[in-house]
Design a protein that fits this description.
Layout lengths: L2 H8 L8 E4 L3 E5 L6 E5 L6 E5 L13 E5 L3 E7 L4 H17 L6 E7 L8 H14 L3 E4 L3 E4 H5 L8
Parallel strand pairs: 3-9, 6-7, 7-8
Antiparallel strand pairs: 1-4, 2-3, 4-5, 5-6
Length: about 160
């Protein structure tokens, strides 16, 4: 584990500006200037860890935007993208590999890509979905809209809209 990831994992948000523990009922992640956002519902107000990956824990390298972790349940790697879904898949895989290498994963793992356009399932996208599934035993969901999602539903292969 690199020193920066270890420091962020063990300290509070004051010490590590890219990691925050929250119990708010709606956990919203977005990027400055972007119209894309994801809201993870937290009706029971359980503790969740929100990490800024791209431009935060990882700088000048390929990575997804956000990671939301629920202790003893799992992790969602979120990429807010314009239209390059293939690049988004690469970013989600890279961020998940980083999290695994640095012992940041809590359990099940899923990727969530929110983009402005949803192209047909190209061969590259299908391969990336299969690679992620095989490597991390979880799904990547691609949606062409922002919205609210249930944490456990995103972790499911059935899709973020249902369990």
């Amino acid at each position: 584990m690199n020193a920066k990831a270890k420091e962020c994992k063990n300290k509070t948000k004051v010490v590590c500006p890219y990691t925050e523990v929250t119990k708010v009922p709606k956990i919203k992640v977005t990027d400055k200037g972007s119209v894309r956002f994801a809201v993870i519902n937290n009706k029971q107000r359980l503790s969740h860890t929100v990490r800024k990956i791209d431009g935060g824990l990882i700088k000048n390298a390929t990575a997804a935007d956000w990671m939301i972790s629920k202790p003893d349940v799992g992790d969602i790697i979120i990429e807010l993208k314009g239209c390059d879904v293939e690049k988004a898949m690469i970013q989600v895989i890279a961020a998940t590999e980083f999290a695994k290498t640095n012992l940041l994963l809590q359990g099940k793992t899923a990727g969530l890509v929110l983009c402005t356009q949803h192209p047909g399932a190209t061969t590259k996208i299908q391969r990336a979905l299969q690679k992620f599934s095989k490597q991390f035993d979880g799904p990547i969901h691609v949606r062409n809209r922002s919205g609210e999602f249930e944490f456990e539903h995103v972790l499911s292969f059935r899709g973020p809209e249902r369990a």
